[in-house]
Amino acid sequence: MRKRLHSQADSRVRLSDVATTAGVSTATVSRTLNAPEKVAPAARERVVAAIAELGYVPHGAARALASQRSMTIGVLIPTLENSIFAASVHGLEQRLERDGYNLLLASSEYDPDREVAQAKVLIERGVDGLVLVGTAHHPALYERLQQASIPYVTTWSFDSGGDAPSIGIDNRGAMAGMVRYLLDLGHTAIAIISPSVDSNDRIAARRGGVRDAMAERGLAFDERYLAECRYSIMGGRESLRFLMNLDPAPTAIVCTSDVLAFGAMVEARAQGIAIPAALSITGFDDLDFAEHLQPPLTTIHVPAADLGARAADYLLASIAGRPIADRIELPVNLIVRGTTSRPRPTGS
Questions:
Q1: How far is CA 1 from CA 5, 6, 16, in A?
Q2: How confident is the model at residue 331 (pLDDT cuts 50, 70, 90)?
Q3: Does 253 fall in a domain?
Q4: Most CB atoms within 10 A, among 36, 64, 119, 261?
Q5: Both 59 and 128 in a single domain?
Q6: 320, 35 in Cβ contact below 8 A?
Q7: Segment (H or E) for 213
Q8: Proportion of the chain above pLDDT 70, given as a percent
């Protein structure tokens, strides 16, 4: 039986108890908690195991005072409705947990002023770093970050030439690739289902990619074929109804997210429109359900979890003063499944 390390009257597990159990010094335990990258893996594993065995709970205020860190990262996302952000936040949180960091989350609902106010609160709470979505933010947000002198990183929209650290994807190029594929199939009557571009540089870039690909073939996008809606399955359904009432109706619809594509597919089935024989539909994100739809959805795969983990890597390195690349473009892939085919011949 293991010898008791403290009395019944003082049942709180101490740092020294962890050190004794792990067979290391109290300084090694402290470094494991505050700067784990500075501890040899074997010693770090013994400390982690001892902490789990004893149920040691570090005193947050004391740790923050000793390390001058809160061990907390803030993340500002534009909405909680888009499940793709959950995947990236999950990747971010998993990576941070390995180094003992916690996450504080706020949602701006695409309101730039609200985002500035939320950033102020997070900074006042003492976060050690901040993750932003996209590159289009209120100038006051960047000013506040500079004043606070904390590391931050923009995500989702890769910006090779901006001032801010950037880890993301080429939204414009990815959507252009999708539309080139549809053009190669023979589609020219191509429509877009999309949310508003207000405070959303990712959606603006994806719409731009449609126009880029069509312009490469000497075609102009027909603005009648733009259906703007709320990000929801119902938004996708309502948009498909609108588009298919046009004359002529589009033969292909590119949706700026999988959720909108799902709504469009539901409405097409309700109207008896065969996919892909009578209408091709594409998405963007490659959410888990996309490959299980009937037919499976043609879409763009976005490495959301990896994006979150890379953002965590950047902030952890910046906090520790380690060199790390501040411009990382992640690859995306066109995933061709069952919702796309050549357009039906005219008059058939």
A1: 12, 15, 19
A2: very high
A3: yes
A4: 261
A5: no
A6: yes
A7: helix 201-216
A8: 92
Residue 244, classed as helix, strand or coil, is helix
Domain boundary among 281, 302, 323: 302
CATH of the domain at 92: 3.40.50.2300
Q: Are residues 111 and 195 in the same domain?
A: no
Specify the number of domains making up the chain.
Answer: 3
Q: Which among 92, 74, 86 is positioned nearest to 311, based on CA atoms?
A: 92
Report how far residue 203's alpha carbon sits from residue 199's, in angstroms, rounded to the nearest whole number.
9
* Model confidence, pTM: 0.80
Instruction: Please determine, for residue 241, whether its predicted confidence score (pLDDT) is greater than 80.
Output: yes
Amino acid 58: pLDDT: 65
Q: Look-up: residue for tokens 């050690």?
A: 128
Distances in whole angstroms, Cα of residue 82 to Cα of each of 74, 208, 231: 19, 21, 8
Sheet holding 252-255, edge to edge: 226-228, 190-194, 252-255, 280-282
What CATH number corresponds to the domain at position 28? 1.10.260.40
- What is the C-alpha radius of gyration for the chain, rounded to an integer number of angstroms? 25
Residues 20 and 77 in one domain: no
- Both ends of the chain: CA-CA distance in Å? 83
Q: Mean of the per-residue pLDDT values for the chain?
A: 90
Mean pLDDT of 314-321: 94
The answer to whether 56 and 17 have CB atoms below 8 angstroms apart is yes
What is the domain extent for residue 237? 171-302
Q: Please report whether residue 337 resides in a domain.
A: no
Question: What are the residues facing 168 on neighbouring strands?
Answer: 156, 329
Q: Are residues 85 and 160 in the same domain?
A: yes
pLDDT bracket for residue 30 (50, 70, 90): confident
Residues 297 and 180 in one domain: yes
Q: What angle, rounded to 10 degrees, do the helices at 41-54 and 26-34 form? A: 90
Instruction: State mean pLDDT over 308-324.
Output: 95
**What b/e string do you get for 216-247 counting C-beta neighbours within 10 Å, with b at 16 or more?**
eeeeebeeebebebebbbebbbbbbebbbeee
